Structures are given as structure tokens and as C-alpha cells.
Amino acid sequence: MDIKFDDAYFMKRALQEAEAAFEKDEVPIGAVIVVQDRIIARAHNLTEQLNDVTAHAEMQAITAAANFLGGKYLHECTLYVTLEPCQMCAGAIFWSQIPKVVFGAYDPQRGFTALGGQLHPKAKLSGGVLEKECSQLLKQFFIQKRRLN
Q: How many helices (H) and strands (E) does the chain have?
């Protein structure tokens, strides 16, 4: 059985991370960083658990990937994240020079594109990969939060 390592495959891995965040009562956003079809970093939001507004899935994944590779630049990597990155995360993506970013759901209010942010000039951006699944998990989380409050 051949496994097809495409954007949907890796977004499903990021969704697994988002589900782990959901189980921890964190906003369910997950990320993986891939190099040569190999996941080198997995992360999900930890802002509540760490009491740290910067503990977004992308930030955690970038740190883990840099530690794995032994350097701050992630030139050969692709970041998969279940929600369009915010401006802060876009800045980290810019500085780490990740050449490809793939996200699931769009964030028209807080996403970096809506706020005028940018990635590294050479970076390629692809959005809407498994958008329905990524959006549904976020909607489910916030519906549940509203019921509890």
C-alpha cells in the first residue's frame, strides 16, 4: 500500500494536533513541519496550559523544527497549519524563512492576510486545504465554549 504524501495527508496530521488541543480545552489549532516528506515537528496551541499568548501551534512547531535541524532557518521545510496564521506567527514564519505554508481554514478577522501581514518574499502560500474539517473543529470548540459560559 503506497501512501500519498500530499498536502491533504500532512493537513490530516495537523488536524490530529488540533484535536489534541481541543481535548486540552485549547483553541484547536494544530501544525506540523515537514522536510522531504518527513514530519520533523508537531505542535498545537498551548496558550492556556502555558499561560502564554505566544504559545500558538505555529510558534511551537517552528521552535521544535529549529531545534531538530540545529538552526534557525527552515529553508527546506513546509508548514502545515489548520488555521491561517496570525500576524505574530506570520512574522515568525518570515524570520525562519519557511518557503511554503499550507493552511486549512481562512481567518478573515485575525489572519495575517486580512491584517496586511506578509511571509518571506520567496514563500509560497496555499489555503483551503481540508478547510471544511479544519473549520468544523473550530466551530465545534466555540459552540461548546458558549454553552458553558
A: 5, 5
